[in-house]
Records
---
Amino acid sequence: MNGWQRYRNYVMGNTIGPIEPNLKDLSFWRDYLFANVLLYSIPVSLVALVPCLVAAYINGQDVLACIELFAFCTMLLITFTRRLRLQVKKTFLVVLLYLLAVSLTVFLGTFGPGVLYLWAVTIFTALTFSPKKAYLTVAVNCVLCLGFGVVIQYRLFDLPLLELYSTSGWIVFSVNLLFLSLITSALLDLVFTGLQKTIVREANLKRRLKEKGKHLGQMLITVKSQNEELERFAYIASHDLQEPLRTISSLVDHLESQNQGRLDEPSQMYLRFLRQSVHRMRALITGLLEYSRIGKENALEWVNCQTLLETVLADLDTFIKEKEAEIQADNLPQLQGYALEIKQLFQNLISNALKFQRPGTQPCLQIKVQKLDKHWLFSFIDNGIGIEPKFQDKVFAIFQRLHPKSRYEGTGIGLAYCRKIVELHGGKIWVEPNPEGGSIFRFSLPLTKEQCLPEA
């Protein structure tokens, strides 16, 4: 560490302390500015002191030389003493500036730097104390100017330089000095009041962001814990809950084989109901297990949606022919995602469009895609039975059914799959009524950064 750095650390530590506050408000910056004033005043004063003392000695101004030497020693005391509080040091420096201003004005006249010191006191006070206190220096300047005017008018002291003044000239000078002092105080008051409000707002914003971040962190921990519980539940569902179902199914098979031909019609009906319930329960558990595993076992990859759609249509070929459905699709794009999940998304939406067909109408499904600013917009447009507006927000809830099982088969989990898959990719899914009858399922999937760039 060099000498300047040690000197700087000592002055700054002796003035504002070695530890900076968490909130750097205007009070901190005023103190920091004052510390820098002391830091640079000592070496600069040393450079200026010797020529000033020599000039004062040559011109026979011994009193002025003593005042300048006293001012420098006072600066040393203010800078290096540890016994004075910060506000006391600031006050001493203001008094010292006034002493220099009066002395230089008396001995050198308006052509000397004394009048600049009077204005500098106002600026220094506004910057290191507060703009409100700077108005006090305007009042002091007014009193000093009035005092100098009286001395000039009545020649109260035998000073040679008083012959250089005139009362009218001093009045003009004083008015301009007071005008500059007053407008400086007013403008700095306006600036610092705005800065203080900005700093307070920024501090409050940081505090709220910190609180929100802390709350978000706690929520993430909670979500992670809930996900772990869901995975544990899924494991239980896939193993422990499946075992009683297998037992019940085996007992039903055993009862039927052991009592074949001896059961009456009601007993056979009860066994069929029992078998159907076991089958539905197994489907629900399997669906719940698959729902919990969405996005956990695969990695992001480039997915050719057109190839994926062709695969899905091939898998559903028998169902499509059975329904005599007509399916039209745009040329689908490539995107980054989870291939198995997107395939399941397509399969669920196509299956629903065919399953919920309007009686007496040939199922017709149009698959459209549109490239927007930041995402792909997919639209699955069917001519089925449609969804009432009051149910459009509920259809994506898990196990939500709008129709009895006797009319339409299913577990009520298919559209919940779709929503989770779309949200897994950072998109949204919703349903709209088709003006021509049926429903329009729309979902967005984000573009990559390269796809967001405009085409050349």
---
Amino acid sequence: MGKKQIWYEVLENESIEDCLARMRKDGFMVIGRKEEPLFHIVDDEPAYLRQKIQFKGIPAQDIE
């Protein structure tokens, strides 16, 4: 069976543990993580907003 990869983003009002539980519920296992800062413009200057966290997952049955 092919390895379908999908990225899950930790939502703004969600903990990392909640996101991982959502992945498990959907039948996916974490195989990667990436983070990047998000900025918005305030007075024509970039200002830090929050950290964007994503987990890469593949179907759990493919991990064997």
---
Amino acid sequence: MKDTLSLRKSGGRLMITQDNFNLEYTDPIEVYQIRHFVCKEICRQIHRYIKAMSGSKQQMLLFEEHLQGLSLDEKEATIAQYLDLNRKALKGLDMKLVLARAMANYCDTYSYLVTLINDKRRIVQYLQLINDIYIRYHTVFEENGKFGIADYKGNVIVSPKYEFLRTCYMYVGTFQILPIIAQLEGKMGVILPDGKDTIVIPFDYDSISLREEPPYFDAKRKGRHVYLNMDGSKYAKKQVEEKEKK
């Protein structure tokens, strides 16, 4: 009598026998360890991104400190949130290479590494898993001619009542929620995608554009410019420009 193992698979249970063991069985320890090493590789990529954006060593340490004490699931979710705010962090990163490095770290023999690398089916499964874990981007949707935002699960985080929405992709070295530039009843303001439409900058402006460095917003009202930060604090445009020239 053949020994059997059972594996849950999309809607049912697949009986695994000695005949199909190598083809169908996935070792949960292997999956966990490869996820663990992929997580480390993604963290290294984020470190490179912070450095490329002229971030300080302190920012990198804060990033690591934020992840300390978290389970692997929690780390993956937190990093996915960071990547949604900093999508450029993955620019140029080959996930196949990330997976290959993770597999190399996991394997204790060269022959088994070669076996894993040559298993196209398993490679595809792992790449899909990595995608599902880390690419959890929000989306802008339209409803009755107005725009809102949903997270990767489909939960509405910005109500569909705005005439215009602009997601503020910018460099941040933390895991803060980045605000959204929005238009409501013809006026521009800034809100948080927190499911409550929390107003950061009131809808008092004729236009708001995004700057590459703090203060992040260049707002215009009745022909006059003012710079605004993410906490809503105001700065005179002339004062900021003089400081930037120094």
